[in-house]
Amino acid sequence: MKKIEVVQNILEANDAIAAQNQQLLNENEIFAINIMSAPGAGKTSLILQTVAKLKNKLRIGVIEGDVASTLDSEKVRNEVVDVVQITTRNMSESCTLIANMVGHALKRLPLGDIDLLLIENVGNLICPSEFALGEHKRVVISSLPEGDDKPIKYPVIFADADAVVINKLDFLPYVEFDINSFQIALKGLNPRIEIFQVSCKTGAGIEDWRAWLLKELEANKHKSQAKK
Amino acid sequence: MKKIEVVQNILEANDAIAAQNQQLLNENEIFAINIMSAPGAGKTSLILQTVAKLKNKLRIGVIEGDVASTLDSEKVRNEVVDVVQITTRNMSESCTLIANMVGHALKRLPLGDIDLLLIENVGNLICPSEFALGEHKRVVISSLPEGDDKPIKYPVIFADADAVVINKLDFLPYVEFDINSFQIALKGLNPRIEIFQVSCKTGAGIEDWRAWLLKELEANKHKSQAKK
C-alpha cells in the first residue's frame, strides 16, 4: 500500500509541473509534442525530416533527452532555432524525461522565438508513458524491424498516444510485419489514434505527418486564444 | 540526498535477493543468463535459436519477462523443459525484471530438471542494467536496424555486460551500421566483453554463440563444484 502511495505522489507532483509547463507554452503560443519510441526507431530522424519540411514555415525548437551523449543534439543543432540537451544519466531518473527536467529546459530556450517544440524523449517504450511533460500531443514511433507485436507487448504507451508513426517503411520487403494487424491492435487500444506510415530515410509519407502537425498546431492556437 | 539513499536501499535489497537466487541456482547446478535488449532486437529469437542448438545436449528452462502479453512464452513453450512468464504490468516495477520476481519464478520451475536457464528480460536498454537477478552472465542483444550508436547512448548496460550479440546481420546491406566502430565503442566501455555477430533469422554465427555458452556453463560447473 505504501509503495503505491509513493508512486502516486510522484506522478501527481509530475502532473502538476507538467501543467505549469503547458501553461508557459500556451502563454508563448508554442505547440509542443512529446516523441517517444524504443531505441533506434527513428526519433531523431523524424525530427530532422519534420524540421526540413517545416523550418521555412515555423520557428522550431528542440529538447533532446538522452541517457548519455549529445549525439542527437549535434545532429539537429544547425537546423533549428535552438536545442537544449537533457542528459539523464542518473539511475533514478534515467529511464524517461520528467516534467521537471523539461521545465528547466524551457528556461533555457528563447520561448518568444519558437512556434513548434519537438521533445525527443529517452529511447524507451515503458517509462515515458507514465510521465506527462506539458506537451500538447504524444507521438510514438514504431519501426518495422521491431516487429508488429509492440502494441500488444507495450500497451500503455500506445493507449495514451495521440499518434503513431510507423517508420522504416523501406524495410517492408525484408521483414515480417503485418501493417494491417498492427493497426488493428492499435485501434483496439485506442480507437481515436492517428496512424502514419513513413520512411524517414526516403521521405515517403512525411507529407501526411507534416499536414497533421500543422493542423493540430493551428487547432491548439485557436484553443489557446479562445481561453484568453 | 534522501532520494539517493532510497535508491541505494532498493538496489542493495535487490542484490541480496539476487545472491540468494544465485545460490539456489548453484545448488541445482543451473547456469543462468540474463538476456537484455531494446524492444524487438531479438531476445525471443535468440532463445529459440539457442534452444534449437542445445536442447539435445542440455535441459533448458526459460523465464519470460514482459510488460504485458504471453506471446513470447507461447513461442518457446513446446521447445523447453518449462517456461514461467512474469508479467510486470505495474508502473513501479514494469521497466525491468527484478531479483524478487525471478525468485518467485524459480519456485515454479522444476530446478532439478534444468541445466541452462535463459531469462528474457523486459525490452529496455536502461532499467535492467541496474538490477542483478542472480544470473551468472549478462548478455545484451543489439540489432543492426537500431543503429551503431547504442553503446554511446546507453553505456551502462553495455559496460556491465559479459557478452553482446549483434543480431539481424542479414540487414547489413540495407542499413548504415559500422560494425567496426560499434565494436571499438563496446571495447572502450568494457575491454573484456565477448562479441558475437549473428542472424537469428538465417542462423549465421549462432555456432560461436552456442560454443561460448557451453564453455561458460562448464566453467561455472567447475567453479560451483570447487566451492562445495
How would you sum up this structure, described in words?
2 copies of one chain form a homodimer. Chain A has one domain (12-227): Rossmann fold. Helix content of chain A is 42%, strand content 18%. The first copy, chain A, is built from 8 helices and 7 strands, in the order αβαβαβαββααβαβα. Chain A has helices spanning 2-27, 43-54, 71-76, 99-107, 150-153, 155-159, 179-189, 206-227, and strands spanning 31-37, 60-66, 82-87, 116-120, 137-143, 163-167, 194-197. In chain A, helix 3 (71-76) links the parallel strand 2 (60-66) and strand 3 (82-87). The longest helix of chain A has 26 residues, at 2-27. The model of chain A has no long low-confidence stretch (mean pLDDT 93). The A-B interface holds A 3-4, 7, 11, 38-40, 66-69, 71, 89, 91-92, 94-95, 122-127, 130, 143, 145-147, 149-150, 152-156, 168, 170-171, 174 and B 3-4, 7, 11, 38-40, 66-69, 71, 89, 91-92, 94-95, 122-127, 130, 143, 145-147, 149-150, 152-156, 168, 170-171, 174.
Q: CATH architecture of chain A, please?
A: 3-Layer(aba) Sandwich
Percent strand of chain A? 15-25%
Identify the overall geometry of chain A.
globular
CATH topology of chain A: Rossmann fold
CATH class of chain A: Alpha Beta
Largest sheet of chain A: 7 strands, parallel
* Spatial extent as radius of gyration of chain A: 17 Å
- Structural class call of chain A reads alpha/beta
List segments of chain A where confidence is low: pLDDT < 50 over at least 5 consecutive residues: none
- The beta-strand count of chain A equals 7
